[in-house]
Input
Amino acid sequence: MSDDLKKLISILIEEIRMLRHQLDAPGEDTISDKFAKYRENVRRMRLKKAAEEES
Amino acid sequence: MAESRVEQIISAIKTKLETIVGDGGTTYWHTYHVIRYHAMTAEILDPSIERPIAVVIPDVVESEEDTNRQIRKFVRFDIVGTKKHQLPARPFDATAPNRWIVQNRIAQDVEKKLREDVTLGGLTDNLEITLTDETAETTYIDGWATVMMNCVAQTVHSASTP
Output
């Protein structure tokens, strides 16, 4: 295996490790994030109700 | 020119919430520090504010025009109520009241006050609370008990006087 390939593999392994860490320990949501999520739920609920009324 | 009907409604909601006077639950649970803001942000969770906080946040306004040049508007807004509240270190250590009860008391106060006069003194045809969210997924922030309530006010006005 060439040195370049080894280097590339080690970079990829490090990237995967960092991504896994981010997935395992996501940053705590702020109140703004929570509020955005809430507003998204409200809009989804409104669309669902409108679709039900039309059908 | 007078402020728009939408502005008058949002302003009336704030004024209405300011008239809630807490008496330990006989009539209302709390007296609130009421503000209007464009969104719910970290600056609002100010621990130096002793009272529970009620935030009025305007959302979209939907409009329909009928054949008589009358405009029906659905003025959507949110009320976010929040109170300082520490969870116990262990879930098994009970606190009284617990977080959900604190949230629910705020929701109860707001609902009772809004339903007192759903016309807001003649500004609206109806005022509804369409969703009350007390779930941890969307409301939990360490040190606070928060409830989010989505409301809609319906109003009709002539096309020439928005």
